Amino acid sequence: MSDSNLIYSTSLGSVCSGCGQAVDRCVCAQAKKTAVPDTDGIVRLSYEKGRKGKGMTVIRGLALSESGLLDLARKLKQRFGTGGSVKDYTIELQGDFRKAAEEELHKLGFIK
Questions:
Q1: Both ends of the chain: CA-CA distance in Å?
Q2: How far apart are alpha carbons 1 and 47 in whole angstroms?
Q3: Which has the least CB within 10 A, 13, 21, 55, 80?
């Protein structure tokens, strides 16, 4: 497709605004899952207040793709028996797991 801003066409259906492909052939989501963010190489663990005043452990600075972060978050959540999510290339774990997360990341080779 050319440089048009076509959003919907009866011949193609819905069109992705990012790549210009039909939504069922869009490559933007796959590219986002495999993209690795630019980091300074320092993994940062912090404790922040979350929704309704509940605390969460936030892990930033991992040079992993979104799918890699999802896998690591799943492992950490299972290891600590807690909930959590991945948002904007950060892992959020419900509760204060800074020390345990640091030890686990060290075992997995993310922290030296």
A1: 47
A2: 46
A3: 13
Length of the chain, in residues: 112
Query: CA–CA separation, 74 vs 84, rounded Å?
Result: 8
Structure tokens at 11: 């011949």
CA distance 108 to 112: 10
| Residues in the chain with pLDDT values less than 70 | 1-13, 29-38
What three-state secondary structure class fits 45? strand
pTM of the model: 0.70
Query: CA dist 50 to 55, 58, 63, Å?
Result: 5, 10, 24
Which residue has 């999802």 as its token pair?
A: 70
